[in-house]
Design a protein that fits this description.
Strand content: 15-25%
Shape: elongated
Structural class: alpha/beta
Mean pLDDT: 81
Number of helices: 15
Number of strands: 8
Order of helices and strands: HHEEHHHEEEHEHEHHHHHHEHH
Number of domains: 3
Length: 398
């Protein structure tokens, strides 16, 4: 019979942590293949049995690229028919999308040298043009089914942010924004709601994106958190009729841009005293004090502070337990970082469809991971959100 155990000491002697993980994956994969073939043959290797229906015929070598590194495998061969392990066939959607982008780059006429450099940067040995149509269709079908799915229930909180990527357009290389929307539903779970590509500053673009979300079922939005993109605030008021929270992290960076390097620590400390307050009333009072102190040294900051006050402190009108999640777009930062890392490998996308394909595949995988995690927000405090946009705050003990 096939052996499914291996002395633990032998595994630990394989080397460093990364090598140890690869050895474990290789060991388990090889044993899984042996078990599969044993079932297909009706007998173990070298075993005499009247139930045997096939025989082994050696091995063929195959490299398996995993997140732990490249693993050499020996795939068993059969005298009759063929065998291929199921775990090698499907690639992750994002990895398929990366391959599809490279393949499409070939078709769009990107230089062979540039594409080869890209292939090597991704740790692959090459791609085949003949598979591009089938692969792209498979990915696009999954991605669009995810991005066009109905949105059910209420979504009290929505985060919006943009990551810029480069794309070829009418013979030119332009920078476009990949807009991502994330929401928390009435069960306290977060999901990726949508993706769009376009000029993020245009109000018409934001309006169209938000209307598409509402068409798919987005409702019950109480607060939208984002950076101060031009046109976005107007689009939120027009389409969602929700309160807007200006990301306080981005706002702080805007304020620090008016100070010299030596002054930034002092300015940051002053701004921090506002956010340290326990109540909305105390925070607004502190905001006015800090504004006066900053305006005395940086006159141009008075207008910025006065204009941003209510938008930056909007999150204080919502349940205390949610505030750490509501004051900024940090919920999206890690996701945007992963999108940026993958898009930097591509460099220049051949068209917008390639952007949707790659970024959409990444979002699909992230959404699946979130689905198996615990609730992002508690049901108890979500229940304090009232009808028609008002908020019933929980009692605060003295």
């Amino acid at each position: 019979m096939t052996k499914f155990s291996m002395p633990l000491e032998e595994l630990f002697e394989k080397g460093a942590d990364a090598d140890f993980v690869r050895e474990m994956i290789a060991f388990m994969a090889q044993r899984l293949m042996e078990a599969d073939v044993e079932g297909l043959c009706g007998a173990a290797h070298g075993e005499r049995s009247e139930e045997r229906s096939n025989y082994r015929n050696g091995y063929r070598e195959r490299r398996w690229d995993t997140r732990a590194g490249t693993i050499p495998l020996k795939i068993p061969k059969l005298r009759q028919g063929s065998y291929f392990p199921g775990f090698l066939e499907p690639r992750r959607a994002a990895e398929k999308a990366m391959v599809a982008v490279i393949q499409e780059a070939y078709i769009q006429g990107v230089s062979t040298r540039s594409v080869d450099d890209l292939v090597r940067a991704m740790g692959m040995t090459g791609v085949s043009k003949s598979q591009v149509s089938r692969l792209c269709e498979e990915i696009d079908e999954r991605v669009h089914a995810f991005l066009d799915r109905p949105l059910e229930g209420d979504w009290p909180y929505v985060w919006l942010d943009a990551t810029y990527v480069k794309v070829r357009e009418a013979g030119r290389i332009v920078s476009v924004a990949a807009i991502i929307a994330v929401g928390v539903n009435g069960d306290g779970r977060r999901e990726i709601l949508g993706l769009a590509v376009g000029p993020s500053e245009a109000e018409t673009f934001w309006t169209g994106f938000l209307r598409e979300l509402t068409r798919r079922g987005l409702r019950g939005v109480k607060l939208v958190i984002s950076d101060a993109h031009l046109g976005l605030k107007a689009a939120i008021a027009k389409v969602l009729k929700a309160t807007w929270q200006r990301c306080r992290v981005h706002f702080t960076r805007n304020v620090l841009a008016h100070a010299t390097k030596g002054q930034r620590q002092m300015v940051s400390a002053l701004i921090g005293t506002i956010f340290a307050q326990d109540s909305a009333e105390a925070a607004h009072t502190q905001w006015q004090l800090v504004t006066e102190q900053l305006a005395a040294r940086f006159p141009k900051l008075r207008g910025l502070m006065d204009e941003a006050e209510h938008d930056v402190l909007a999150y204080l009108d919502f349940p205390r337990e949610h505030r750490t999640k509501l004051h900024s777009t940090n919920t999206l930062e890690r996701l945007n970082g992963e999108v940026k890392r993958r898009s930097d490998v591509i460099g220049i996308f051949p068209n917008e469809a390639a952007i949707i394909r790659l970024v959409g595949a990444l979002l699909l995988e992230q959404n699946d991971e979130w689905a198996i995690q615990r609730r992002y927000m508690s049901l108890e405090t979500l229940a304090t959100l009232g009808e028609n946009g008002e908020v019933r705050l929980p009692a605060i003990a003295n």
